[in-house]
From TrEMBL, chain A:
Pfam families: HupF_HypC. PANTHER family: HYDROGENASE MATURATION FACTOR HYBG. PROSITE patterns: HUPF_HYPC. It comes from Streptomyces smyrnaeus. Belongs to the HupF/HypC family. InterPro entries: Hydgase_assmbl_chp_CS, Hydrogenase_HupF/HypC. This is HypC/HybG/HupF family hydrogenase formation chaperone.
From TrEMBL, chain B:
InterPro entries: Hyd_form_HypD (IPR002780), HypD_1 (IPR042243), HypD_2_sf (IPR042244). Transmembrane segments: none annotated. Keywords: Iron, Metal-binding. It comes from Streptomyces smyrnaeus. This is Hydrogenase formation protein HypD. The keyword Cytoplasm does not apply. Belongs to the HypD family. PANTHER family: HYDROGENASE MATURATION FACTOR HYPD, HYDROGENASE PROTEIN ASSEMBLY PROTEIN HYPD.
Amino acid sequence: MCLAVPGKVLRIEERDGTRMASVDFGGVVKEVCLEYVPDLRVGEYTIVHVGFALQRLDEESARQTLELFENLGLLEEEFGDPWQAAEDAQRADDAQQEVRL
Amino acid sequence: MKYIEEFQDPLLAERLLEDIHATVTRPWALMEVCGGQTHSIIRHGIDQLLPEEVELIHGPGCPVCVTPLELIDKALEIASRPEVIFCSFGDMLRVPGTGRDLFQVRSEGGDVRVVYSPLDALTLARENPDREVVFFGIGFETTAPPNAMAVHQAARLGLRNFSLLVSHVRVPPAIEAIMRSPDCRVRAFLAAGHVCSVMGTEEYPALAERHEVPIVVTGFEPLDILEGVRRAVRQLEAGRHTVENAYPRAVVAQGNPAARAMLDEVFSTTDRGWRGIGVIPDSGWRLAPRYREYDAEHRFSVEGITTREPAACRSGEVLQGLLKPHECEAFGTTCTPRTPLGATMVSSEGACAAYYLYRRLGGTTDAPLEASIR
Ligand code: SF4
C-alpha cells in the first residue's frame, strides 16, 4: 500500500475543478490527481501513490545518478581529493589494526 | 519502463557492491525504515550480496503493520453497521483485529469495498447520498496528502456522508524512538525516499546530529538501495554523520510544498500508538479541529473498545529490528499469510510476509513452507 511507482503522463484534463491526468505505468493506465504537482506536463514522469502524483521524476538527475554509478571508482582515482583519500586509507588501516588487536 | 529497469542494471549493481566491499572495514548495522525497501531488499537478495560486515535491520515503516489494534477494532465495528460503506486499501482486509478481520466482516454482510485511491471513496459518497461512506485513512507521510485531499474535497463539495477513520504516522519521531531504545544497534538509517518526496529532508539534520547517526535518503530499486548503503557505509567508516540525498530524481530538500500546505491545513500532530511498539509522542496526525465532523471516530462514537494481541506474536520486536522474522517461533508454522497472527505477516511490506514470500528461513528449519499451508 505504501508503495509509490513511477509513471508517464499521457493526458491532462480538468475535472470538477480538479487537475487530473491519465498516467501510464508500463502499459497499465490509471487516473491520477495532479493537484500536488500542478505544473506536470504531458510526457513527463511522476511518482504516483494511491492515485496522486507526489513528485516529478527529474530525468536529468536520474541520468546523473546512473553516470555516477558507471564512473564509480574511476572518478575517484581521477578527480578525488588525494589528501582525503590518504586520510581515509589511514583511518581504514587504523580500524583494521583495532580489529586485529 | 523508464526509471525502473535502468536502476536494476546488474553491471552497475556490481560496481556499487565492489565499492561497498572496498570501503567497509568493520561491522555496521543499518536500518531501512520503509517496508517497501524491506520488500525490495529481500526480493532481490540484496542483503545476501552485501559484505558480511553490513547488516540490514528492517524498520517499522509498514503502515499496515503499525496501525494500532484498537483502530483495527474500531474499523471492524464501523464496517459492521448497515448504513456504512467501508472503504479500504486492499492490504488492510486480512489484518487481524481482536478475533476477526475486515474480510470476515464482509462475509458476515458488511459492505466493505477495496479502493485504489481515497478519491474513489469520495465518488462512492456522491453516488450513495443515503449511505455513510467511511475511508480507512492509514499510512505514512506519503499517504497522508492524498487522504487530506479527500477530506478537503469533501468539505469543498459539501459531502456530509463522507468521513475518515484516521491513523497517520510520521517517520522522524519513529527514528527518534528507535535511537532512544537502550537495545538499539542501528548505526545509520536509510530514510524512506517517497516520504521525503513529500516532506523533504528538513527534519533529519537535527536527528543525525543529536544521535550522531548518518541518514541517507534512499529510493526503492536495487541500485537505489545499494547506493543508500554505499553512502551510509562511507560516512560510518569516515566517522561522519550527515544527511545525504541518494534519491535526487524524486526528492528535493523542501519536499512538495503544495502537499505540505494541505497537511498543515487538514491535520494536526498528535501522539500515536504503534502496533507492537507503543505510544510515540507527536508521531502522527489526526484531523484538525475544523475538520472534526469528517472524523469517523467522532461520528460513530466508537470509544471504549478493548483489545488483546495474540501472545505468540513478536512483531513488536521485529518492527524495532530486535528480532528477524524467522527467529519467531510462530513463523511459517502457526503464523502464515493465510493465518496471520500479526500484521507484519499480512501486508506485502511487512517483514514477516517478505521473509515468508521469499523463503527466508535463516537455516532455523527445513520444513517446506507449503506444508504449513493447509
Ligand atoms: S511471524 Fe507471525 S507471529 Fe511471529 S512476529 Fe511475525 S507476524 Fe508475529
